Amino acid sequence: MTVPDDRSGDRRGGLNRSRQNAPDDRGGGGGGLNRPRQDMPVAWSDLRRFTAARVALGRAGNGLPTAAHLDFQEAHAKARDAVHSALDVDALTAAVAPLSVLRVASQAADRRAFLLRPDLGRRLREADRAALPVAPGSFLFVVADGLCASGVQQQAPALLAAAVPLLQRAGLEVAPVVVAAQGRVALGDEIGAAMGAAMVAVLIGERPGLTATDSLGVYLTLAPRPGRTDAERNCISNIRAGGMSAAAAAEKLLWLAGAALRLGATGVALKDAQPATPLLPR
Amino acid sequence: MGFAQAVGGTRYLFPDLKTLLARATPLRSGDVLAGVAAETAAERVAAQRALADLPLAHLLAEVVIPPEVDEVTRLILDRHDAAAFAPVRSLTVGGFRDWLLSADTAALAALAPGLMPEMAAAVCKIMRLQDLVAVAAKCRVVTRFRNTLGLPGRLAIRLQPNDPLDDPRGVAAAVLDGLLLGAGDAVIGVNPASDNIETTLRLLELLDAVRDRYAIPTQSCVLTHVTTSLLAMERGAPVDLVFQSIGGTEAVNRSFGVSLALLREAHEAALALRRGTLGSNVMYFETGQGSALSAEAHHGCDQQTLEARSYAVAREYAPLLVNSVVGFIGPEYLFDGKQITRAGLEDHFCGKLLGLPMGVDVCYTNHAEADQDDMDALLTLLGVAGVNYVMGVPGADDVMLAYQSTSFHDGLYARAVLGKRPAPEFEAWMQGIGIEAASGAGLLPGRLAPALAGLE
């Protein structure tokens, strides 16, 4: 599917449980079991070579051994803390310098409101809309905390540092970066429309899993305006250490931006024109 | 026609049936988000009292979504069996609750074709968790493909070996891990990371080869879109079960890219393959409260009523497996462990009452207010309620979908404390190859050679 995947927290498709972009985070993929004789038992723990999933955890009765249980608890604790982390805008501003930064917030007053009312996270605070400058025809970056501020804090500066020069070299004018608190993907539509941007890329924290708690997603929308649907966006997912690199994501964003301008569209139409990428490792 | 009820000196008015049903629904975030929830606890109980006094037959007369705009409503009305409905026709919704608590297994089975989903949803709203467990535990729905699911005293596990890259080795390793821990009798079913046809074909071939080489009496499934499964069948791929996510309105199904006609086409194609050895239940459906609202396809109805309507879609195609993915859809629909727990038991109850082989994906996401303790409680409650199957994911951590479901270990726990066993054919297979002794020793049994699953 071409719409943002469920980890943006803006999922509209409800049950479509697939994921477009996948992490590439396993080490030692070239390893393998020695060819066993079929009547020779093999150690259960050898299965760990083939997957990052929690296989071969052993058993304590029917339950998890203590160490495996606490490993899980630690991973969940980190994911929960990541969901409830807050964006440090001063630190982010310093990290993206010399790019200039504008601060806004959605209508979700706090984390609880953000989680319960996705509609408020898609709407800009009235006062903030009035204060936005116009930047007609520009390429606009909106950096939003989404479901994981810590992921944005860690990944967004490197992505901006890689992407902005590429876009400028391609002749695009890059608007001041807008940093949005308690923001969802569609908040970029309202900000982009208010500023008159040609295109908006929303850099947003993805819902943390137990293995990746610092992942960034990018959602590109041509001619942003309120009412755009997820089918009108393109997504780059899983930008993090161990996932897609900032440099690779910047190249991908440049490719998508160029294709969007040629086609006059983002979303389904653009996806169809994209060259296929290999789905399985060679 | 409207409904009125006084509580505490205040008179509450409910303009129509769908509003009455929504206001009577125990609190959940999705109904608040949709703007259909009761505003106060008193309004909610007023709606519950008014609903309890409503004749059950009224639900045949006043539909929540007009048949002119919704093929699911038309299906529900077309399929209603008046003769099966006769034993409860004269009851109110409140009287129906009492009837259910006293009914036996045979009476419940005979009633199923006479029930509209809205009737199950209505009575559900005036039932406590205990009632939902007690009635569901009396329902029995048995289905067959290569084994027998839903028998009394049995609890099956879907082995869910998802891999973020659809890497056949990652899938195979998770399959072996699950088999070693007693999972896989419900189905060995992969959610592919990609909807790509070539990936689907490769995964289908892998799962079928593993099942065949280890001679496992079970079925496999790649949970891809129904159109991709149709394409795979055209290409001669080994499709045991056809999967699809479904919802309770024509519009939400359209957002999933399906219609009743398309599901019928897929059902007929899967039946024509004649791959089942013990039976011909060839469909696998997933549902979940909140999907219609998330697709803006809810027609002002509450999410639990719409969930029950999705079971009318499911039962049209005699599925082997149906499960709600209860905690997956997110905290804007079910906020915390309490809401997820109640919804999981509601979905299981309504599905069983309507004659479906219900399982539940006992699960949560990291932005919901829930944790492993909540899952333990819901899993145990569902086990007592006689759930046909639950999920088995390595270590409860789905590394592809990034959410937490029940683990293989959780399945072992539930079977042990509840005195349940795997599906009989699968249990015999496990005993035959010595799984319990091998896993106790930290080994794979000789007959589960990893090389046969492509791990070398």
Automatic annotation (TrEMBL), chain B:
It holds the Pfam family EutB. It comes from the Bacteria. This is Ethanolamine ammonia-lyase large subunit. GO terms for cellular component: cytosol; ethanolamine ammonia-lyase complex; ethanolamine degradation polyhedral organelle. Adenosylcob(III)alamin binds at P192, Q244, S294, M400. Catalyzes the deamination of various vicinal amino-alcohols to oxo compounds. Allows this organism to utilize ethanolamine as the sole source of nitrogen and carbon in the presence of vitamin B12. Its cofactor is adenosylcob(III)alamin. Keywords: Bacterial microcompartment, Cobalamin, Cobalt, Lyase. It comes from Siccirubricoccus deserti. One of its GO terms (biological process) is amino acid metabolic process. Binds between the large and small subunits. GO terms for molecular function: cobalamin binding; ethanolamine ammonia-lyase activity. Its EC number is 4.3.1.7. Substrate binds at R158, L159, Q160, N191, E286, D361. Pathway: Amine and polyamine degradation; ethanolamine degradation. The gene is eutB.
